[in-house]
Specification:
single chain, about 160 residues, alpha/beta, Glutaredoxin, five-stranded mixed sheet, two-stranded antiparallel sheet, 4 helices, about 25% strand
Length: about 160
Amino acid sequence: MALKVGTKAPDFTLPNSDKKEVSLKDFAGKPLIINFFPAAFTGVCTEQMCHNRDENAFYGSLGAAVVGVSVDMPFTLEVFKAKNNINFDLLSDFNKKMIRDYDMYLEDFLLGLKGVSKRGVAVVDKNGVIAYSEETDSPLTQINFAALKEALNKLK
């Protein structure tokens, strides 16, 4: 079950695809959209990240920042980001701490693979509180982008 709205967002520090550390505190004072995805280079994950890429100007118009989080290594995320022209940070939770802290840990993935991120999204408001949270029932199901936009509009 994803974190409940009104919960204080757990802190994190993870390497991005440029091998630089990114922390929750880097986004203090503005909303942060955290997109959790199971694996780079898979169909639904690519669609999720590309949709956010295409909506990044809208998110920015609301003062919000975007990140993607998976258990892929930073090197993999670097190639995935370049191939898909992703215009926001992709963070590597290779050690699976953040996905556990945000209750986005998926024990059993496809093909017998274990321990990846669930597909979901969390919006952290400018005060560091969860303002919206969603996880899908299946890694093959896309997040509800309309509900995400509605939640962001409420933060204006």
